Amino acid sequence: MNPEREALRDVAREFTRREVAPYLQEWEDAGEVPWELHAKAAKQGLLGVAFPVEVGGEGGDLLDSITVMEGMFEEGASSGLMAALFTSGIALPHLAASGNADLVDRFVRPTLAGEIIGSLAVTEPGGGSDVAGIRTTARRDEGEYVVNGAKTFITSGVRADFVTTAVRTGGPGHAGISLLVVEKGAPGFTVDRSLSKMGWHCSDTAELGFAGVRVPARNLVGQENTGFAQIAEQFVVERIALAVHGYGIAARSLALTTAYCHERETFGRTLLANQVVRQRLVEMRRQVEVARAYTHEVARRHVAGEAVVAEACLAKQTAVECAAYVCDQAVQLHGGAGYLHGTEVERHYRDARILPIGGGATEVLTDLAARLLGYVP
Fold it and tell me: Does the predicted TM-score (pTM) go above 0.70?
């Protein structure tokens, strides 16, 4: 790692120690991250680290974003915390890439400055990972679009000031999808439910309703009926980010468990005196290292301009399966203490369960990888 990225990692670590770790359980119980944290993260240059300077970012790339995430996970940030704080990573890329100066000035810059919060609304009730099957409609009416439909499982949807929304502006299938920015307060746009979840407790998740919502045509992102391609282009980065979530919380859980096994005594000796425990820790370490190394390589290739859609699917699967195993074993080796609500390994265990589902379910991504790799007859 070069000195610049090491310094960036140190900033992320210190930010987490100072601004996140002491309050995380409080936010978990409250069900959301405070707005002020976004402003603090922006002031440290963390929110916009991977966005171009021209749109208000810090001018870094995906590898810099990974550095920030790894540093924060090392100091105890949870997957849910990262999802809530960095929702800009899925809400803004389409806007930033569109080249639309008006959208950049109204939404991208203030979000990266921590002044407003955005979210991305793609998933629909009953739709799951079927992006091409979107049914929320947007009908053109002179200088506006009239939006009707519903979205669910929307990260930061309760707090969001705007939602980058996938809508159907054309015919059936992927060719008829567009992206529209729907702003909070628009008549007919409602947060119908705040969803309670197994994990990601501090990440607010919403079900949204659109009943005749009139959206200015200038809020169209890119060209009409190009939304599917825009979404698909950003999926690679989202899946790599979720892979980092996977091995990040696994690595943290491994560190916590190793320390616990050094200290915890049973039958007159530490847990580490037991061969079965040592072997379990080695297996946990092996999975973390494999997931980290493969994800780094896929990210490096993506930054270099290579097409890595299939590889991003594989990296996500490798890392989230690592998280599922390692976080489970961390709870097991902590014994009863690991099962108590508020114990950090218990939080990571719960948070790990969403990772094989979000950003494309493992089953869907495996089938996509099979087609891309030529395994479908």
Answer: yes
